[in-house]
């Protein structure tokens, strides 16, 4: 699935370092959600320019915790993430309609 979770520390609009806000990176990727100490942290939504979206937990700028990833290829993963990859218990519904529910390690089905 690939590494998706790393974010550089953004400069927050209106000097908002903590709380709810929106930040857009130069490539068009947009994050709306909670910030702590100037980086995404808490609950939020990321929308990439290719149409891929993530909604869920962000930990110190990393997609880590529980959430939903809608991949640009048409499949959807709901479950646990670590550093941007499915990791732990989760369900992947593939674009062809097949479903896998179980344990994931670094983005791979176990």
TrEMBL record:
Put simply, this protein is called Uncharacterized conserved protein
Q: Which domain of life is it from?
A: Bacteria
**Keywords carried by this UniProt record:** Repeat
């Amino acid at each position: 699935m690939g590494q998706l979770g790393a974010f550089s520390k953004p400069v927050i609009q209106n000097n908002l370092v903590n709380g709810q806000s929106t930040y857009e990176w130069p490539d068009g990727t947009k994050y709306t959600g909670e910030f702590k100490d100037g980086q995404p942290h808490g609950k939020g939504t990321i929308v990439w320019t290719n149409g891929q979206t993530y909604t869920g937990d962000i930990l110190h700028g990393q997609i880590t915790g529980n959430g939903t990833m809608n991949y640009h290829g048409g499949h959807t993963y709901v479950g646990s993430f670590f550093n941007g990859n499915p990791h732990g218990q989760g369900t992947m519904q593939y674009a062809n309609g097949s479903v896998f529910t179980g344990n994931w390690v670094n983005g791979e089905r176990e």
